Every structure is written in C-alpha cells, then in structure tokens.
Amino acid sequence: MTIAKDFAGGVAVVTGGGAGLGEAMAIAFAGAGMRVVVVDIAQDRAESLGEKLRSKGLEAMGLQCDVSSRESVNELARRVHETWGGVKLLCNNAGIGGGRTGTFLEMATSDEWEKVIDVNLWGVVHCLQSFLPLMVASGERAHIVNTASMAAFLPSPRSGPYTTSKFAVVGLSEALAEELPPHVGISILCPGPFATGIWGGETKGSGGFKLSDPATIGPIVLAGIEANAPYIFTHPAFADVVEQRYQRILDQLRNSSSH
Hints:
Elements: E1 11-14, H1 20-31, E2 35-40, H2 43-55, E3 60-64, H3 70-84, E4 89-92, H4 111-137, E5 142-147, H5 160-177, E6 184-190, H6 217-226, E7 231-233, H7 239-255
Parallel strand pairs: 1-2, 1-4, 2-3, 4-5, 5-6, 6-7
Helix pairs in contact: 1-6, 3-4, 4-5
C-alpha cells in the first residue's frame, strides 16, 4: 500500500484507533510511511497498538482521549503538536453504537441519546476544532476522514441515536467541504457491515449476512485519500438500495405542489 508523497512521513491521527476499523486504518497508514497517533478512550488499547507498530519498525504512539470531552481533545492536540508537529491526516473515527435496545418511544430517558451524540457527532466537532486550524494554516496538503456509516443513507429501526449521529456527520462534512481551502481535502467514510464490536461483538448483521473483516478497510481508505474522494464506500452492493431511496425522494420532490 502506498500513499501520496505529500503524506509520506506526515502525522496521521486516528481516533477510535485501538480496535476495529480504526486499528485497521492505523496499521495501513503506518505501513504506508506515516507517523501514526493511535487514539482511543482505552489507554491500554492505544498503547498496545502503538507498541505493536513500533516493534515492526514503524513510527507510532498511543494516546488516551475521550473525544466527547473538549478538554480531553485539546490536551490530545497539544501533545501531538509538541511531539511531532503538524498533522497531515485527521481520521475522526471514534464511535459507539447504542439504540438497538429499543425504539424511540421505548427509550424512556435521554441518557443514551446524549452519550451517542456526544461521541459520534461532538467527538468529530471537537477534533476538527482542535486540529483543523493548523492544518489550514500550514498551507500544505492535508486530509480529513470523517467516519459516518451506510446508516446515514439507509436508516434501520431501533438505531435512532446512531443513525441520527451519522446523518449529522455527513451533513457536517459536506458543509465543511464547501468551506475548506483547496489544499485540505475531506472524505466521508461510509462503511457497511464490519465486525467492529460497535454493536457488542455481533458476528452477523440483521439480515443474517457475515460481517466483513476490518482489515480490508485500510487499502480502501488509502485509495480514497489518494483520489481525494468526497465519499469512501466499502460495500457497493448497497448501491441499488441507495438509488431506490433517492429516486423516491426525487419523485416526491418533482411531484410536490408549488407554493
């Protein structure tokens, strides 16, 4: 796997990097010649992967951070900048599931909603606020990868908080894409069903299909960064269903009465 020469030797920050998709991306970025900061809420996971990468002669370090906390993210950014300087690649990947325990009406309190939104949406906002200004100010090529989900295009029942947060990540990313200077690219990563543990270690999806191996995500994301792709999809089999969704929306729009 290779990465554009503009990124070789640069610093990549991967939140939620201690396991699952984040771990796979961190391994891919390090293997492509980047200096990788593995960020995870679990310090042992972050440090373990950092040590594993260093044992292979790659440059990496593991840092603990709770992305839902602005103060924790600010401290993360301070440590990264003091240790390795500017960041070339910011991968906002930390996320939690939640919501499959009940429908909207069955969820009696807002606790689960707040927890999911705090991590999946505010975590992205906090990291952008802490890292993006210097990425823009550097004038050098840089890239952002915000992890959304196919759930942002194909909602399913009993996943209200998660689906809402991922719709929001897409909206935030698309708005940001219109504002960024040309040297800072942004991709929205929209993974399909992977065996990530985000839903409690499930091995099959709701349709009974086998979940994909997270290790396959690395080359896909690298290729998306290389191409400066606005979206990075992992499961093209969903294309027909997504097309049907948007066709229904277009039909409604075109048939709506003018006011």
